[in-house]
Design a protein that fits this description.
HEPN AbiJ-N-terminal domain-containing protein; 13 helices; 2 strands; 2 domains; mainly alpha; two-stranded antiparallel sheet; AbiJ_NTD4; Four Helix Bundle (Hemerythrin (Met), subunit A)
């Protein structure tokens, strides 16, 4: 792991990929296209009929790329040169803008249904694993990471030296969430809630205060709505009770997923920003 990754210096927008596709995600999406779509389609021609792959390539050439049918990579006898077409798609994909790459993924997802391929399932796994801000639902690319969520994390990370501990916890939460080699969603959640705890301890000038105690004090001095305080106390309880994240790191009674860690990071960041506005 690189030094910048170990200390948590990752750009939020690079981690939660909403307006870009990094090299690793690009590579894996191409592997999906090649291994889970192209190579799954039979490429053997029978008598004078074109192979199924050739037929699919013609459809892609004419309906996605919208190019002249007589200009598709072909042999001298007119048969589709499928290897050449694969290279054409690869070159186009690697040079396309990030949103154009998703155009192709969406097109192939729709095409994979009649071909009975599990392409969409494999792509969704890649998107989830690489923290892309999108998923495929009913063959359409849908954004699942909102701009407000990213902004909440970015703003929460912008603190002065007084709140360095808060920034450290949030950076570590982001690092645990985005570690491709060994993602640690449990510790990501712990760091997210610890960031709130650290912020509240500084706000109340009580370094030994628990979050529950600090919230009671802040409710009185900073006019936090009771329902909001209760909601966050409940989230804190989720991580701290006898079956919570902090008490069961070595047990399997709680199945912590990427969605849980992301939700806690966004929620804790938003709550820190809310407390900032009350100072």
């Amino acid at each position: 792991m690189r030094f910048s990754q170990r200390i948590g210096k990752k750009d939020v927008r690079q981690v939660l990929q909403t307006d870009s596709i990094d090299q690793i995600l690009e590579n894996k999406l191409w592997n999906n296209i090649l291994n889970d779509f192209i190579n799954k389609i039979e490429d053997h021609a029978y008598s004078y009929q074109k192979s199924k792959r050739a037929e699919v390539f013609i459809y892609i050439w004419e309906n996605f790329f919208e190019l002249k049918s007589d200009e598709i990579p072909s042999y001298t006898d007119g048969d589709v040169y499928t290897e050449g077409m694969t290279e054409y798609i690869k070159k186009w994909f690697l040079n396309a803008e990030w949103y154009e790459k998703y155009d192709l993924i969406e097109f192939l997802s729709d095409l994979s249904n009649p071909l009975r391929l599990d392409f969409t399932t494999k792509v969704n796994y890649t998107l989830k694993r690489e923290l892309a801000g999108y998923t495929i639902i009913q063959n359409k690319i849908i954004q699942i990471t909102a701009e407000q969520e990213i902004s909440a994390i970015e703003n929460a990370l912008k603190n002065g030296s007084k709140y360095k501990s808060v920034e450290t916890h949030l950076s570590q939460a982001l690092e645990h969430l985005s570690n491709r080699e060994n993602p640690d969603y449990r510790n990501s959640i712990k760091e997210s809630i610890s960031a709130v705890e650290a912020y509240c301890a500084i706000l109340t000038n009580d370094s030994k205060s628990t979050l529950g105690k600090a919230l009671n004090q802040i409710e009185k001095t900073h006019k936090i709505h009771t329902a909001l305080k209760s909601s966050f106390s409940a989230l804190y309880g989720y991580t701290s009770d006898s079956g919570g994240i902090r008490h069961s790191l070595l047990e399997d009674d709680i199945n912590v997923e990427i969605e849980d860690a992301k939700f806690m990071l966004v929620s804790c960041s938003a709550f820190i920003n809310y407390l900032k506005s009350k100072e």
